[in-house]
Amino acid sequence: MAATSPASSRAKPEPHAIIVGAGLSGLVAAAELVDAGKRVVIVDQEPEASLGGQAHWSFGGLFLVDSPEQRRLGVKDSLELARQDWDGTAGFDRDEDEWGRRWAEAYLDFAAGEKRAWLHEKGVRFFPIVGWAERGGYNAIGHGNSVPRFHIVWGTGPGVLAPFIAKVKAGEAAGLVELRHRHRVDELIVEDGAVVGVQGTLLAPDDAARGEASNRDGVGEFELRAPAVVVASGGIGGNHELVRQFWPKRMGTPPTSMLSGVPAHVDGRMLPITERAGARLVNGDRMWHYTEGITNWDPIWPMHGIRILPGPSSLWFDATGKRLPVPLFPGFDTLGTLEHIAATGHDHSWFVLTQKIIEKEFALSGSEQNPDLTGKDVKLLAQRLGSGAPAPVEAFKQQGVDFVVADTLAELFDGMRAISPDVELDTANIEREIVARDREVDNEFSKDLQLTAVRGARKYRGDKLIRVATPHKVLDPKAGPLIAVKLHILTRKSLGGIQTDLHSRALGADGTPVRGLYAVGEAAGFGGGGVHGYRALEGTFLGGCLFTGRTAGRAIARG
C-alpha cells in the first residue's frame, strides 16, 4: 500500500473489535465493549466534529411501552397492545422477514422491559408529555400507534448520545478506545471466509462543522485487523441517487425533487462493501421518508430540509388543490400519504391552517430546532405554553421560502401560486373545502372525520395541553392570519439493510453468520435487515440503534 496511518503501528495490541461508523449504534456497541474491558477502534470518514452522526440532529424520540410517563397521563399501554400495533404496521410478508420478525419481538420486550431503566441508570431523562406519532386512522389491527408512545429525551438527540460519548471518551482516556476520524473504509478484509479487518483511504483533514459536507481527498491508505468488525455506517438518505434507485414500485414514480433530512455523509457506501464480504442485503425497497418537509432557511448540509411534526388540525391538499383522502391527516400515516402524493405526479403538497393552529400544533424535528428541549432550558420551555408560535417555527414562518401568510383567502391563493407557479392550483376547490369544513365546526359532532379525529385527540391530556388546538373555523378572523405551507418529500431512513441474527451477526446468502462480521443500527435495518417491515411506529429508529448496538457489543464481549 502507498501509505499507512501513523496510528496503525504494529506495536499496539490488536483490538478486539473495529467499529465502522461513529454514530449512535456504533458508540453504543463501543460503550458495551469498554464496560467489558475490551479494546476498540472506531473508524469514521467524517471529522471529529460530526461524532455521533445523524442522531445528534434528531428530536430524541424513543418508543417505550407502559412507561411511568404514559401512566401519569392516563394512558393504558401494554406489551400485547404494542405487539398488535407493530404487527399491523410492519405487514411482514416476505421470506426475508424471518429475522425482522424475531428482532421485532425482542425489541418490543426491550421497550416494555428494561429499556427505560437501562437508559435512566445512564442519566437519560424524559420530557413528561408523551407524543402521539403515527396515529394510523384505520382499524384496530391496522397501521399506527393505538396510544401515545413517543417519549422525548430531555436534551433531544444530544441527550441520547451523551452517556455513550462519555463512556467512549472515558475508554479512550483509559487506552481502550481509539477514535480514528477521516478513515474511510473501502473494503472489508476476508480470509478463509471470515472478516478479519478493514482497509481504506485516509482522507485529508477538514475543519467542516458538524453536518457540513467534508472533502473526499485521499492522502494515504490504512489497514486494521481485529477478530470482529461492526458495520455501523447508517443508511442511504443523503444519497438521492440511491433513494431513487431503490424507490419501491408500490409508491409510484420516485420524486424528481426531494429535500435531505440527513447530512450528505449518510451515503450508503458501506452496504455494497459489506455485501462483497459475504453479507446478505435485504429489503432495499423499504424506506421511510417524510411528506412534511420544508426548505431550511439556514441550511447546514446540501438540500437541507426540516420536517414539520404536525398536530392533526391543518387541512392537507395535494399540489393541485384536492384535499387528501381519509385517513391521510397530519401525523397519521406517513407512507400512506407519501404513496398518495407520489400518485398525483407532483412532488409537493400543501398545509392550510391558521395562526391559532401553528401556535399550538407545529413542532420542528431536530435538536437545533428545539433549543428549549435540547438545552434543557425550563424557562424557554415554558414559552410553549404561552401565546405565539415557538421561536424556531416563527423564524420559518417569517423567513422560510415555503410559507405564505395572508389575511384573506384571495391573498393566500396569490401567495401559493407565486411559490408554485408550475402547477395549476384549483383554488375554488380549496375554498369550497374550507367553507364546508367550517360549517361542521358548529356542532360538537361531525361527519368530517378529521374534525372527529381532532376532538378525539384532545381527549388525551398531553395533546390537549400542548399539541392540539381547540377546533375552530379556519376563516374566523380571530384565529388568523391564514397560513399555507408548501411541503416537500424529505429523505430520512432506510428500513432494509444487512440481515442479522439476534446477536447482530451479519448473515450470508445461505443464512449462516459471516464469521467476524456484525451490523447494527440503520445499516442493519435496525435489526435483522428490517425490524420495521414496511412501516414504522416512530421513536423506533434511535431505539433500534440503541438495541442493536447494545446487542452487538455484548455478543462480541462474550466472544
Largest sheet report: 8 strands, mixed
| Low-pLDDT segments | 1-9
User: Alpha-carbon distance between the termini?
Assistant: 31 Å
* Radius of gyration over all CA atoms, rounded: 24 Å
The proportion of residues in beta strands is: 15-25%
The chain-level structural class is alpha+beta
Q: So how many helices?
A: 18
Which percent range fits the helix content?
Answer: 25-40%
Morphology: globular
| Average of pLDDT | 96
Q: In total, how many beta strands?
A: 21
What report would you give on this structure?
This protein has 18 helices and 21 strands. The two termini are 31 Å apart. The strands form five sheets. Strands 10, 12, 13, 14, 15, 16, 17 and 18 form an eight-stranded mixed β-sheet that branches. The N terminus is likely disordered. 31% of the residues lie in helices and 20% in strands. It is an alpha+beta fold. Helix 3 packs antiparallel against helix 4. The longest helix is centred in the first third of the chain and has 18 residues. InterPro entries: FAD-dep_OxRdtase_2_FAD-bd, FAD/NAD-bd_sf, KsdD_DH, Succ_DH/fumarate_Rdtase_cat_sf. This is Oxidoreductase. Keywords: Flavoprotein, Oxidoreductase.
